[in-house]
Automatic annotation (TrEMBL):
The keyword Translocase does not apply. GO terms for molecular function: oxidoreductase activity. Pfam families: adh_short. This is Short-chain dehydrogenase/reductase SDR. The keyword Cell inner membrane does not apply. Keywords: Oxidoreductase. Belongs to the short-chain dehydrogenases/reductases (SDR) family. It comes from Tolypothrix tenuis PCC 7101. It comes from the Bacteria. InterPro entries: NAD(P)-bd_dom_sf, SDR, SDR_fam.
Amino acid sequence: MDLQLSNKVALVSGSSAGIGLAIATTLAQEGATVIVNGRTQERVNQALDQIRRIVPNAKLQGIAADLGTQAGAELLFQQVPLVNILVNNLGIYGSKAFEDISDEEWMNILEVNVMSGVRLSRHYLPLMLKQDWGRIIFISSESALNIPAEMIHYGVSKTAQVALARGLAETTAGSNVTVNSVLPGPTRSEGVEIFIQGLAKDQSISPEQVEKEFFSKTRPSSLIQRFASTSEVAVLVAFVASPLASAINGAALRVEGGLVRSII
């Protein structure tokens, strides 16, 4: 299927690794010009090299900027004044008891996970509306629906992203601009892979057994009973970013392996 992205410019925030890198790679495979972002030039260059190994003729631009800050966003806007597709993927997380989460930690996770998308959308959405075409996609999480007790601040930030996306979608009525959120579940990113390998080594069991026990004990409602791959998330994002998804607007699309026990 041709996703008709060959004439589109896409920005993926936080795309030097994990789901963001997979999204950037998939968009590049579909012919889009992709702007890869990370906090350091070294990380950005590594991501560009990884994408080019898979897509030798990829049309890429790399920008090192901390988009969790106003200064980083302004630096980006100077270099990339206009995009057709914005994927708000940048995010952080951390496990911590609610009573131990400081004000500073609350503000930091909201600044990175929520305000980064606010700033980027505030800049690019009016331009998309002016040209009457655009896609904004927030990479949220199933934790937006199933707030994890071990990281409530993360869950709150992910719920805020879904609300933000829906609110922005309301402003696009009658246009060819859409705003949606995508909610991945447990995904086998680089960080998860390192965690699995370390746990397997510590417990003297196989990585496969670690994964099996994680889903049987921690995520028993998962229907696929495994980690999704980053590419499985990326293909959904690429479709939603395409002209073919013009009737999808204001939606929260789940790619969490059936973990959320809900029919809607």
